[in-house]
């Protein structure tokens, strides 16, 4: 099976190599993949892998889409977080970032405003991408970006925002719909 029309590894082998630096630092990836009935390519959330005992979630499909723009570092990539946020938070943020990666060049040190994307105690106003690893697979460069929170939610400034409505609007905007 060729991923991205270029590499000759199957999905499992590809992600075993790509996630190698995560495994080395944080432990083995859980066996199950977190998916939805409607996949990312159909407008649903991105699929995730996890190391639940470390509260770590990582996207596991974005780097296989030829629509993904190369990052500023010239790689195709996935996102991960070990910031103590929930599976739902990671899936919402990574889905939005995945859509953005199809439209924009993202990279190390880039900040993204996320105000209104997540409601409640996990709401944040801004995240930043940090290059965690860069791996060559079948002659092409791939990597992992850690998603870090740079600005927690400021309730005084953002009072009255409806996260669900803004999140849906943001997701449609990112997906071009």
Task: Give the key terms.
single chain, 177 residues, 6 strands, 28% helix
Task: Describe this protein's structure.
The chain is of the alpha+beta class and 177 residues long. It has one domain. The chain has 5 helices and 6 strands; from the N terminus they run ααβββαβββαα. The protein has helices spanning 11-18, 20-26, 87-103, 155-158, 163-175, and strands spanning 48-51, 56-59, 76-81, 111-113, 124-137, 140-152. Strands 1-2-3-6-5-4 form a 6-stranded mixed beta sheet. A hairpin with a 4-residue loop joins strand 1 and strand 2 (56-59). Helix 3 (87-103) runs parallel beside helix 5. The longest helix is centred in the middle third of the chain and has 17 residues, at 87-103. Mean pLDDT is 86; it is low at 160-169.
SS field, number of helical segments: 5
DSSP strand count = 6
Portion in helices: 25-40%
Oligomerization status of the protein chains? single chain
The ordered string of helix (H) and strand (E) elements is: HHEEEHEEEHH
| Main sheet specs | 6 strands, mixed
Amount of beta strand: 15-25%
Distance between the termini: 30 Å
How many domains in all? Answer: 1
Low-confidence stretches: 160-169
- Order of strands side by side in the largest beta sheet? 1-2-3-6-5-4
Q: What integer value in Å does the Rg equal?
A: 16 Å
- The structural class is alpha+beta
What global shape is seen? globular
Provide the residue-averaged pLDDT: 86
């Amino acid at each position: 099976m060729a991923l991205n029309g270029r590499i000759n590894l199957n999905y499992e082998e590809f992600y075993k190599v790509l996630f190698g630096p995560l495994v080395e630092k944080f432990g083995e990836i859980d066996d199950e993949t977190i998916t939805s009935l409607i996949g990312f390519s159909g407008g649903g959330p991105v699929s995730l892998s996890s190391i639940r005992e470390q509260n770590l979630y990582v996207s596991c499909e974005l780097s296989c889409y030829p629509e993904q723009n190369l990052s500023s570092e010239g790689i195709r990539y996935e996102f991960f977080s070990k910031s103590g946020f929930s599976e739902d938070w990671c899936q919402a943020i990574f889905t939005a970032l995945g859509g953005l990666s199809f439209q924009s060049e993202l990279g190390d040190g880039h900040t993204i405003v996320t105000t209104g994307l997540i409601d409640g105690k996990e709401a944040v106003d801004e995240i930043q991408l940090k290059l965690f690893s860069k791996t060559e697979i079948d002659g092409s460069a791939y990597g992992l970006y850690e998603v870090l929170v740079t600005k927690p939610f400021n309730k005084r400034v953002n009072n009255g925002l409806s996260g669900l409505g803004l999140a849906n609007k943001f997701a449609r905007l990112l997906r071009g719909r």
